[in-house]
Amino acid sequence: xxxxxxxxxxxxxxxxxxxxxxxxxxxxxxxxxxxxxxxxxxxxxxxxxxxxxxxxxxxxxxxxxxxxxxxxxxxxxxxxxxxxxxxxxxxxxxxxxxxxxxxxxxxxxxxxxxxxxxxxxxxxxxxxxxxxxxxxxxxxxxxxxxxxxxxxxxxxxxxxxxxxxxxxxxxxxxxxxxxxxxxxxxxxxxxxxxxxxxxxxxxxxxxxxxxxxxxxxxxxxxxxxx
Length: 226
Known about the structure:
The chain is of the alpha+beta class. It is built from 6 helices and 7 strands.
């Protein structure tokens, strides 16, 4: 992934993205092309050198066969954070007329090798971790104990566990850091005007305390979009 220096995510923000991630694309190359499956994940930063991502997929999913045959082939999980359209109408008069729309976004490409798991205990633990993570915001969180044990065991027989040991993370936060403080303020106000407060907060945080040399004002309009 191409990451200009101003869009590099620091370690703390990258870890926050992975801790809070929901579902993301698992991509595995193979002889016939690539296998892609959208899966929910749990990130364990205490395992391995850079952490581990765990999930599961249906045993009948052809991606499981690709993983079984992949050996040392590297897979990638593409994690998306906040993203938003940015209208030139929000830039304000200081931007001049030579402006175009853009897209702001946060994304991480998490590379690693996948180990597959069929052990019943591993699968139950993995599912319980996912349930605990995604039920944490519910008034009365559901747990595996709320389902019959034989039913849960049967469901486990229909899935295969996957564990991606992270070997490399490319993380990018393109949040208008190439814009002047005046333009950033306009973008934040514009995002709030359309109700996208999450993106507005992200743009605001990314630009807080940013140094803006005067020479950048003449260059910002010529920046590539992504």
